[in-house]
Amino acid sequence: MSIEILNSLEGFDISFHNKSKRIIEIEIKDETIDKLIFPFHKFDITALEYKPFTRFTLAKSLDDLTKNKFGNYINSIIKNRNNGCFIVKTNIKNKKINDEFLIKLSTAISHLIGVPNHDSMTGKYYARFFVKHEDTSDSYLRKAYVNMDLHTDGTYVNEKTDWIVMSKLEEKNVKGGETCILHLDDWEHCDELSKDPIGRQNFIWGSPKSKNINYKVEHPIFNNDNKGRPEISYIDQFPEPKNMEQGNFLQKLSDALEESKYKISTELPVGSTIIANNHFWLHGRKPFKENKNLIRELLRIRGSFN
Fold it and tell me: 51 in a domain, yes or no?
């Protein structure tokens, strides 16, 4: 069964996502935003980057508004195998909500569920990046007109990546580019492919130069959690198959994920943040419709549980 909706969280509207009861939607009311302005104003972005303890102060100020109910609730979602995903929404028409506020809100949420990894791409605890019409990057991350296939994060780093936070800071002249997500337990090919011995072999995982990682790691695509349920660590761009057997398995896996009838496609408005358990939720993005004035700015934080 999915986790119950918490109706006693004052200042928030909570509901199930319209496409899946696995996903909880949490809308922060304007009255709650007003109460966050003062404690959030205490630290600028530079302070958050240079002094890690300030990030926990932000998290506490958010949790204090609900007498610690908010932190407990989102942890119960993100760690629950039946759910593992929630979306936090704000009223972007509220002029008090800008990119700086959204960075602070995402920082507070992430520090209520754990500790962020160092993001080598930017050298910070978060990455902030644009998707535009023209792009010369070496990763699908910024390529607007290419499908970003379903994947998990942290496949090519030594740090454990339990969860991912993605916030939409800005969007203009955009059609398409919907977020795609898939829960491992809904995937019709999960049992077949997660039990395939090839998926349990060690694969070599590298990364393009833009990631600023100068090493490679080895790990299987599929593991089991402490209850014997499958978990996945996979992205299509970074594995380096050792032989025909591994190469063909990767193609079979990629096709089975992208063709899944249980893949959820959803639009996330500006000011929204999606938080997902990285062990059993995969995420991706559909291509955008071509527009030379297209722009989308995203914030990413990923890390481990406390």
Answer: yes
